[in-house]
Amino acid sequence: MQRIEDDSLMVHYELQNASTTVMNAKVEAESSLCYIKALNYVSKVIGVNNNLQTGTLKKGSVIKMFCFDVDGGEETKWFRYILILIFRRLFFEKKIVRLEDLTNGLSRDEYERVKSTIQKLNINDKLLDRLNSHLYFRKARTEYFRQLSTCKEIKSVSIKHNDFDNTGNPDFQIESTSFASYIETFVPETKIENHAKLYIVSPVIVKGKSIKWKGNYMGQDINFEIMAGQFRTEAQNAEIEFRTGSYIDCKLQFEETFDEDENPLHKEYKVLFVYGHGYDDKYTETLEGKKKRIEEAQPTLFDNLEDW
């Protein structure tokens, strides 16, 4: 049970063979890195400066102790309590966090102090929703348990707050048979931009080469594939002139994910259709472009509904 004064969290990797105290070093190192990434993300979102420290207990290296060195002045223990509670609940218990969870089970005085700290940190439902669902945190948790699942020697992982004398009575324990329930599959969202203006930096005009083209889209240098067969063939046959400032008007597809600051990250660019190409004031419409222009000019069933 977590208390306000608790400043450490024990992570205990129970092994199938109780007589040994060693585990795969790579699994331990990489899983700890995932743990740290997830914790740092929570610290950043709620605005708590945390200098995580680690050590081992005398019982062996399969028991890791994480000490939360929080810089909060007189509010340190309240900051730390909120940080550990949110992290533990999200990372190990895999439960969503609501505002009421931060004050449940506290004495009247503790309730008032934690409530005041919540207000000082500007923690609200919107911020907690961000923590509950953000991909960066979920990916770190997924990778942590994926690493543990590769180590067949691990029987379970458990956590305990501060009182480390009785490791056989953990605060929360996850059996290895449940690791799979923590592992998510993330599929990037596919985005389509119609009439994207893509500047050509380095075209691939050699036949039979699967090298990606280089270009610039929205001020960002990108590598991309040309899926538009006719345009690719004409480029390889030197029927299209590329010079400084050359661009294509195209249907552009890419995958979108987000970093820890929720900035979009794009990759796997593909040009599905080329509607036209040119440079300076010169522009040449392709057959696909003409077809697209005619389609867009056609009236639809729902045009002029406001006149009815």
TrEMBL record:
This is Uncharacterized protein. It comes from Hoylesella timonensis CRIS 5C-B1.
